[in-house]
Amino acid sequence: MKHEFIDYLRCPRDGIQLNLSAINALQDGEIITGQLSCSKGHLYPIVGSIPRIFNGALRQFRSQYHSSVNIEKADPDVLPAKIRTTQKSYSNWWTRFDKEWIYRFNNKAIFLDRTMLSSDLLRNKVILDAGCGNGRFLSVIQEMGARQVVGMDLGLGVERACEIQKDLDKCHFLQANLLNPPFAEESFDGAVSIGVLHHTLNPRQGFFRIAKLVRKGGFFSVFLYQHKPRPYDKQVLTILRDLKWLFFHEPIRRMVCCLPHSFIVAFCMGLYGKRLVTNKLNQHLLSRWLGRLLEQITPYAGYLPNEGLWGNVALNYDSYSTRFLYQISLDEALSWFGEVGYNDLVVSPLPLSITGWRHNEGKSKPLRITYHHPK
Fold first, then answer.
1. What is the fold of 101-227+328-371?
2. Which end of the chain is flanked by fewer CB atoms within 10 Å, N or C?
3. CB 19 within 8 A of CB 31
4. Do 138 and 132 contact (CB within 8 A), yes or no?
């Protein structure tokens, strides 16, 4: 951890400025192992050069500390069980799976398509990547001219980000909870959260917490799973599909997410194989009925035709490994921006991706929206 990063950090329990209370190891001027504390005695470890600032962090990393530390006082509460499950799921993904496959994508193109941001808007800015995973967009943000970049994630993927992106001299790494971020309001010039909030316990709360970290005049970009509206002429069909999802797909998904990591990966590999079979069957008139039947009686499988095995395993793991999988409507997401004083919203052609600019502390009405038709 770089020394200058300490100035940004606050205790997530009481909002008090955190101070460096112990340094156990230094390397090239960076803090490798140490301890942060607030004036009320709450302690947070620095392990592997990453500050771990969330409820229960000291308990998770207690092996780094002497027995004289009173953990009950220094770390009095832990994350809710549902959040710990999500933390474990994504930690398994980034630490036990192919750690660098996601860097093979054109992440700059993906970032630009999702956020509709330009280098001019990032130049000399302090930017937060809220839910950075293993840091696929951190180098993109720095290359686009950001003065400082903060990668924050609750899972251990942030360790992979720190390892892979260790040469990024303007980047800071942090393990923390999006629903309770350890920063003061208006700490950043901009924030992005790409594909994360819909996997949290309360996406709306998470959105508001991150949105308030942005200074007036700054931007917030999000990518959320979209809940699509029901066409007026297909009401019955869409209701039946919703019921099938609720009583067939969702119970299966809930059961799968409780399985060990290796079983979930194997399940997702099976889904990819199923899609290859159904795609083949659907190409021929005589076997098309069988392909469609298999699609209806087997679990849902997302499919990316150009991504191969691991890209498709990743796509389905994202759905089947997590306790939370919410879908947000366009109207709901737009209203969130307005409620926290954002306006001049840009809806990307890749649903559901929205960038807004913070103007006021209160609600912004009417909303000014630039809408790009979905691709």
1. Rossmann fold (3.40.50)
2. C
3. no
4. yes
Q: In whole angstroms, give the CA distance from residue 214 to residue 345.
A: 15
Long-range contacts of 297-300 (CB under 8 A, 24+ apart): 298/274, 299/249, 299/252, 299/253, 299/256, 299/271, 300/245, 300/249
List the pLDDT tens digit at each of the 375 positions of the chain: 998 999 999 999 999 999 998 777 778 778 998 999 999 999 999 999 999 999 999 888 877 655 567 777 788 888 888 888 888 888 887 777 655 556 566 789 889 999 999 999 999 999 999 999 989 899 999 999 999 999 999 999 999 899 888 888 899 999 999 999 999 999 999 999 999 999 999 999 999 999 999 999 999 999 999 988 778 888 888 888 889 989 999 999 999 999 988 899 999 999 999 999 999 999 999 999 999 999 999 999 988 777 788 878 888 998 898 889 999 999 999 999 999 999 999 999 988 999 999 997 677 678 999 998 876
Matching residue, tokens 């990024």:
168
C-alpha 344, offset from chain centre: 24
pTM: 0.90
The kind and range of the H/E element at 222 are strand 214-223
What would the DSSP string read from start to end of 27-86?
ETTEEEEEEEE-TT--EEEEETTEEEESTTHHHHTGGGS-TTS-HHHHS-----HHHHHH
Neighbours of 322 (CB within 10 A): 19
Q: For the chain, what is the total number of helices (H) and then of strands (E)?
A: 14, 12
Q: What's the token pair of residue 84? A: 């710990």
Judge contact between 169 and 179, C-beta under 8 A.
no
Coil, strand or helix at 159: helix
Domain layout of the chain by residue ranges? 1-62, 101-227+328-371, 234-320
